[in-house]
Amino acid sequence: MVSTPAYDPPAAPPSDAAPAATARHTGTIIAGCLAVCLAQIGLVLPAAINGEMQRTLHTSGAELTWISDAFLVPAAVLALTFGVVGDRYGRKKLVVAAALLAAVGYLVSATSDTPAQLITGQAISGIGAAALFPASLTMITAITTTPAARARGLASWTTALSLGAFLAPLLSGGIVEHAPFQWAFGVTGVLAVITAVAAWLLATESSAPEGRSLDWPGQITIAVAMLALLYGIIQGPSDGWGSAPIVASFVTFAVFIAAFVVVENRSAAPMLRLALFRIPAFAASAAMAVIGMLGFLGGAYDLSIRLGVIQHQGPFQAAIPVMIIQACTPFIWPLLVRLLHRIGPGPMLVTGFLVMAAGQLWLRALPIHETALPPMLGPLILNGVGFGLVVAAITAAAVNVVPQNLTGMAAATTSLVRDLGQTLGPAVVGAVALGMAASQLTGSLANAGLTPKEHGIASAVLHEGGPLALHTADLGPLSAKLAPYTTDALAHGYNNGLILTAAACVTAAVIAAVFVGFRRGGTAPAEAEGSAA
Sign (positive/negative) of CA torsion 45, 50, 55, 59? Predict the structure, then answer.
């Protein structure tokens, strides 16, 4: 690796310039926090209204998964490229443009009356979020060059991310309680425009173009690989795991991920320096982000299906548990700052992942017909506290072990693997849960005492739309006969989904314990590229 001079923090400004410098510093942090808050609102927005969207648009299980993942796929696929764009052309300009693009996507979603249009709008908004996540983080890390400032900046960014996830179900659930679900997307589009204006007025521009260029071969290979993987996982239950399209999608993933590695190793200016993965803490943070975020968002998706689809709870009632999870991080913000600065990410990661796993197993133990909020408070708080610890610590573990001039690349990589894990969460949980539910229902229908005509109708709905469609379909008196069987089958499937997500969190905790460890260490950024070699 070609060495570069050590990074020297800028000299302290003259005393008369200090107030202006402080204002620019504060404005940049505010703009970065608004940007990541908007991106996270879009990511969580469908959670509280999955049931309403399913009933209004009559979506299949796969279509319902795609509505969430259409936003997440671009965020995972394009994060690295937008990391390069921000480094070359400026993070402030990228945040402004990305927020405006997200607003366009929300306009498309707000006018949708078919699953296809809603998925399209979600994809456009997801492209904007793909830029907002890494650019907002790098904007903040570029101006926080001391350990204490870096800890405050990262904790603020993490808190804003969780605040967005807290506001999303409040926004969507509250609006949809009194208006069509499309209004939730329209209001979020207005917030996107406000974010763009705030970033333009408040943020300080920063960039690090040295050695950074758009890597189209790398972008194309990673995009094809990720899309193929997600298509295979999402469509597998409905198309059949042994069907030609599904097998071809997994083969395509293997071929193109190998091609991505070859391309990046040969590129003079790769969008991802694979040598960064030789740093144990960086490689471990990437693995933990994929596995751990699969566990967290897979569990959150499982919870949203339990509340909105299986239990038929109203949008606002279904939003309250999601809000409780996300409200925990703002409450523990002072603790996050102190922990990041004084003990470092290792203990936070191990504790956070294990706490999330305990919360998900506790939620699984609750009866499927339990709709009261008090019995759910324990698992909800555990998931929220664990999420706050994990997100702050993963970010710190990644960006603080690379040189300052590569924090854009590290931030983009962190966004990619985190978003990949979050994208895989609903996809994997949906595939496992729906597959198990469909298998159980196939046997249950034969023993449900249905007439041949009723059995034919139920089997046709199950074949065309899957277990969720059969559970929510209006089939007259037949729906009442089927309700115990569909509820039991879906509970079986999604309870097993929680076992899967808890296992993912435990796996991430083991990785953190082995590769990051429990040594004390703060959040001082690396200053020389040689320290990362």
Answer: positive
Cα–Cα distances in Å, from 201 out to 27, 30, 31, 130, 194? 8, 11, 9, 22, 11
Helix (H), strand (E) at residue 295: helix 280-305
User: Is it the case that residue 180 has pLDDT exceeding 50?
Assistant: yes
User: Is 312 exposed, middle or buried (CB count within 10 Å of its CB: 0-12, 13-18, 19+)?
Assistant: middle
**Please, which residues have CB within 8 angstroms of residue 62's CB and are 6 or more apart in sequence?**
234, 235, 237, 238, 430, 466
What is the C-alpha to C-alpha distance for residues 273 and 414, in angstroms, rounded to an integer? Answer: 13
Q: Which of 469, 198, 191 is nearest to 458 (CA)?
A: 469
Q: Are 387 and 158 in contact (CB under 8 A)?
A: no
Residue spans of beta strands (DSSP E) within 212-299? none
Distance CA 354, CA 67 (A): 30
Separation CA 118–CA 134 (nearest Å)? 25
Of 56, 39, 197, residue with least CA distance to 122? 39
Beta strands in 150-240 (DSSP E): none
Q: Average of pLDDT values for 517-523?
A: 55
Looking at residue 19, its pLDDT comes to 62
State the CB neighbour count (10 A cutoff) for residue 348: 26
pLDDT, tens only, 463-501: 877 887 788 777 888 888 888 888 899 999 999 999 999
Q: Note the pLDDT tens digit of each residue in 117-157.
A: 999 999 999 999 989 988 898 888 888 777 777 778 877 88
- Mean of pLDDT values over 423-438: 86
Q: For residues 109 and 115, give the distance between their C-alpha atoms in angstroms, rounded to a whole number.
A: 10
Q: What is the pLDDT of residues 8-24, one digit of tens each?
A: 444 444 444 456 566 67
DSSP 180: -
What is the average pLDDT value for the chain, to the nearest integer? Answer: 82
- C-alpha 260/C-alpha 248 separation (Å) is 18
| Integer Cα distance of 399 and 407 in angstroms | 6
Between the alpha carbon of residue 8 and those of residues 12, 14, 139, 279, 404, the distances in Å are 12, 18, 17, 22, 9
Per-residue pLDDT, 430: 86
What three-state secondary structure class fits 402? coil
Residue type at position 245? P
Give the burial string for 371-404 (b: 16+ CB within 10 Å, else e).
Answer: beeeebeebbbbbbbbbbbbbbbbbbbbbbbbbb
